[in-house]
Amino acid sequence: MASPEIEIAQLSEEQQQALQQFISVTDLEPATAVPILQRSHWNVPIAIAKFFDGESVDSVAEDLAAQNVPPPRVARQENLQDSFLSGSSASSRSGPQNDDAPRIVPQPDNQIATRPNFIIGLIFAPFSLAYRLISLAFGFISYFLPFLPRTFRPNLTAGTTRQANISGRRALKPRDAAARLKREIEEEYGGNTVPFYEGGYAQALDIAKNDLKFLLVLLTSPEHDDTSSWIREALLSGEVQSFISNPANEIILWAGDVRDSEAYQVSSALKCSKFPFTALIAHTPQQSTTSMSVLTRLTGPMPATTYIAKLQTAITTHSEQLRTVRETRNAQNFERNLRQEQDSAYERSLAQDRERARLKKEAKAQAAAEEKRAKDAAEAAANLIEKRNQWRQWRARNVIPEPSADLPDVVRIALKLPEAARIIRRFPSNSGIEELYAFTECYEILHHGSLDNTAVKPDGYEHKFDFRLVSTLPRVVYDPSDVGTIAERIGKSGNLIVETILDEDDDE
Fold this sequence. Notes:
The chain is α+β, with helices and mostly antiparallel strands. It contains 16 helices and ten strands. The protein has four domains: 8-71, Helicase, Ruva Protein, domain 3 (Orthogonal Bundle), CATH 1.10.8; 114-160; 174-332, Glutaredoxin (3-Layer(aba) Sandwich); 398-507, Phosphatidylinositol 3-kinase Catalytic Subunit, Chain A, domain 1 (Ubiquitin-like (UB roll)), CATH 3.10.20.90. Helix content is 50%, strand content 12%. β6 (410-416) and β7 (422-428) form a beta hairpin. α1 (13-26) packs across α2 and α1 runs parallel beside α3. Residues 406-482 form the UBX domain. InterPro entries: Thioredoxin-like_sf (IPR036249), UAS (IPR006577), UBA-like_sf (IPR009060), Ubiquitin-like_domsf (IPR029071), UBX_dom (IPR001012), UBX_domain-protein (IPR050730).
């Protein structure tokens, strides 16, 4: 059943911390991690167990998780006869069977029980004592009156919810606890070249699983007399340090002090009964549901040569299996990389085809635009020529007729045209310079008699003369927009040259 989507901002602070811890271990997306945590009542260890081992989790553990109570550790009860029978039955099975390597998730910071301040503890001591006495009284009464509600019954599992820190050792995060143990060994025993993994047990287990390496778990307890001598004589000996540091053995060494919370949980999960304790863990997908199994356990002090021989035997026995898995994984990675390269090549080829199609389309659109622009320019030029001719017909019809030579107010102008033709014409003295330009512009129409008497002035057209009238000595340019009559500007007579005005493109 699909669970509704929940935004992370809507979760409480404890739920967000549980979500971050669960994601850091499983590498899931928040949308996938939230439903698993909801089904586990936001208990991270149960959610991780569901993720790695499936959804078949004990219902009692889920009920306790719903009440924020971690599931109690089941006590193992057996006698010597049961142990002998179980051992003989296990040995009768076909082939050696390795135990599954447990996955230990550190307890969240908000669930770690810390020792209160001495003054605060002293102040609240009477209240704590009264609470214990009242709880004891209610527990005694509820024992004889079982029909009382559950609220008045004592919580028999309360003592197992958290591990009390009675040693006075400060609780740290897994990475900090590993760094502290390494520092303590260096300070107490001197020089140390053993490559301790400075991180949590879960991270070391994941690295060993992903990189197909051997995880060497070392658990120590300072309360045992043999621990100090074994570390000095065996662990820090040159043979053991060289063996663990040898890259060919592919060993990841994780060490823990059972006084720390994570190391204590690991020792309980690995069924540690004697210190110093060593467990060799490796990837065994055919023999383990979690794909990580304990290959061998070494308990108690032993000489360095014996310690190395037992580890070497277990490593040699399992190296072939790891090599097979590594070759299979490399082949899968090669196939995956090959598919990715093929997909990338296809995507590049597709992108090139798209780019060529885009350039072709742009070139076609640009050619069409250029063709349309040229067509529009040609139409505009033809329209301009048509309006120019219409204006010339209209202006030729409105040119002032040439006055008689007998009239007193007459100006005689000689025009030298570009075609070497010389024209002499009389104009009224009160005519403007523009009349000279209009006559020159319309001379051919007037001279050849191709005048259209029905022509009208074109709308929206402003005529521009493509020539200018110039006198030579001295050189004076007469503009059609000049103010004044012909008589005022030129005099009773004048010789003018018609100079063609060339555009910049024509000049070039």
